[in-house]
Amino acid sequence: MGGRLQRGKNYARSGQVLNMTLSTSVVVGLVQGSREEPYRARIGIKAFTSQQWAHIERELAGQALYAAKLLAGEMPTDLEEVFAELGLELFPSTMRELTMDCTCPDWEIPCKHLAATCYLLAESFDEDPFQILAWRGRRREELLDRLRASRGTQQVIPEETSEEAPLSDHLHDFWTSPSPAGTPESATSGTPVLDELEPLPLKVNGTAVTDLLRPAYRAFTG
């Protein structure tokens, strides 16, 4: 194929590929040959199924580094490893994985028109690696939207942190409570715990136990 590939490269360099479109599974190039009407060169590949893409997206979303790079618009250099772990190949490894045809009279596959289209296709992958994913069935925005949705369901909600000062900073007023505006003076006597309890029925020498404990509480909080 050396001669045809070199002629195809020359076609690509001289701008004879007038147009190239990429969609799911199919790349079509319009290549100007020796005739007035350009030839249509078509390169096909099998797209991944919806189920396969679901596995791919779940794997990508579960790996923070891959997801972060993709969501930032970068293509991880070792992305093929993710596909390999799932038993898939991102790039075709043999010609048998591709289907090619051209409207030119040359019966050889690939002809120089197909070769020229292949060269431009490879350059488009260098310029925008997301194109290879689109060729396999998942366009960039659709993939990123699905990754965002998957990452959103896996986000860990941070625990609420209290802004209150640690207990060690409140040792001096641990036994007291704040005095809101309008609180009666009797409620700020330094014995709020005793005031909140039901009166104790016990008495010592005719004096209620609560009243006997009050000086001790005042001493603690003083």
Automatic annotation (TrEMBL):
Coiled coil: none annotated. It comes from the Bacteria. InterPro entries: Znf_SWIM. PROSITE patterns: ZF_SWIM. Keywords: Metal-binding, Zinc, Zinc-finger. GO terms for molecular function: zinc ion binding. Residues 91-122 form the SWIM-type domain. This is SWIM-type domain-containing protein. It comes from Saccharopolyspora aridisoli.
